[in-house]
Amino acid sequence: MDILDKPVEELTHTELRFWVKTKYNDDTGCVEWDTPARRGGYPSFYYKNDIEAAHRVAYELVHGEIPEGGAILHRCDNRICLHPRHIRHGTKSENTREMYERNDECGLSPCEVREIKRLRDEEGLTYEELGDRFGLHCRTIGRIIRGETYAWVDDIE
Q1: CA contacts within 13 A on the Cβ side of 128
Q2: What pTM value is reported for the model?
Q3: Was domain 3-101 assigned CATH 2.60.300?
Q4: Per the count of CB atoms within 10 A, which of 9, 10, 74, 94 is most buried?
């Protein structure tokens, strides 16, 4: 069962203390940390007598213990997202590979990617027009439209 569907009365003290620090973002579908994040943009939480990355805590609260050496990857690439459906167990090498495959350096949110695709499909804007609007090179827009980058956006809610 998704922790977000669990009645408040059934949450443990730790779960309640954790999830009360989040909010749902209607635009992205992400469950975002709603308090200041630590250096690097990732939120943290005091858990099991230590300061832990909040996305790792979210994973453990919902799915159980993370295998040693495991990484928790964001499907949505939103560092403050803790949505159980947007994070998954993986390896550090997978995380690095996915980062490059997604062409993260342009820093688009899932909402922006969907808007680029919508403007192309429904309004027929050219790659150049979209690039000007979003501050990206027309080749980057082309890769987004063809699904060469940000293809994962269609896989998340």
Answers
A1: 0
A2: 0.63
A3: no
A4: 74
